[in-house]
Structures are given as structure tokens and as C-alpha cells.
Design brief:
The protein contains three helices and four strands. With about 90 residues, it is of the alpha+beta class. A four-stranded antiparallel sheet has the order 1-4-2-3. It comes from Streptomyces tibetensis. It holds the Pfam family DUF3253. This is DUF3253 domain-containing protein.
Length: about 90
Amino acid sequence: MAETDRDLTQRLEQVIMSLLERRAATASICPSDAAREAYEGDDEGWRALMEPARRAAWRLVAAGEVEVTQAGRPVTETEARGPIRIRRTGR
């Protein structure tokens, strides 16, 4: 059975939270970390998961679970331009 967009987003959300739980409380991750972790192949196919990983991060922001940052400061989805990092809230 093919994975739906909703299923993929939920899986990426779980991967993001799992990666953050395995790191120091103040650590952040790149969406590419989640994309690589979620990708089930051994080629460059993880790159296709970059946008879904970003969407999953923004859903987690809306849920109050994480912050998305640039240059170490939290940003909103409308402010974010270019590379982002993801960290737990309250850092």
C-alpha cells in the first residue's frame, strides 16, 4: 500500500521528535536529518523528502512541540527564507 501525504507527514513528525529526543536539550536538527532518517533507500532519494520534512516541522511548530530557527532565533513560516533548523521549544 502506498504511503499517503498525511501518513508521510506523521512519520516525519515522529522522526523529527525522535531525533531531537536523542540529542542534547539545546541541540537542533536540519530538516535533511529527518529526511535522511525517514528515507528507506540508500541513494539520494531522501532529497524528495525535504519539503515534506519542512511541512512536518511547521506542523510541530503549530502544535507547540518545536521551534524553527534561523541564525539561532525562532522564526515564523512567513519569515523563514533559506536554511532552517529545528529545536525543542523553550530553548
